[in-house]
Amino acid sequence: MMITAGNINDTTMMSAVLENIRVPRDGKGRPRTRPDRVLADKGYPSRANRAWLRDRRIAATIPERDDQIAHRRKKPGRPIAFGDKQKERYKGRNVVERRFNRLKQWRGIAMRSEKLARNYRAAVSLAAALIWIKTDLR
Questions:
Q1: In what helix (H) or strand (E) does residue 92 lie, and over which residues does it extend?
Q2: Residue 132: is it exposed, middle or buried by C-beta count within 10 angstroms (0-12/13-18/19+)?
Q3: Could you tell me how far CA 52 lies from the centroid of its own chain?
Q4: Domain spans of the chain?
Q5: Are 49 and 11 spatial neighbours (Cβ–Cβ below 8 Å)?
Q6: What tens digit of pLDDT does each residue of 10-29 get?
Q7: DSSP secondary structure letters along 38-59
Q8: What is the DSSP letter of 8?
């Protein structure tokens, strides 16, 4: 989790968030730091993000925005295919959106009423832990 100012867009923070990921392995070994694939919404398909993912050999499932598709049609180049396999993979993205919506049911988190970033981070961590415990007990 990364906390930024309210006027920072998500696409500029994608590489920073992915660099901080640590996924524990089953059994022994150091945590994985590179995902196999990234699922992102239409807010992330910038050239910089795609180049960053390509340099690290991370597959991407990111739909293009309509204005980018129209721009690609005007100029020759390699189109980004978003075929049936990509559409099937992208269906898993709704899980992430549902989790964000669940977190934002906490009024203080949705309004970001905390003045200090550390307090907001603590509130998000607490809410996420409580949601996880509540859903795990069902």
A1: none
A2: exposed
A3: 14
A4: 1-91, 92-138
A5: yes
A6: 788 888 888 888 888 888 88
A7: EE--TT---HHHHHHHHHTT-E
A8: -
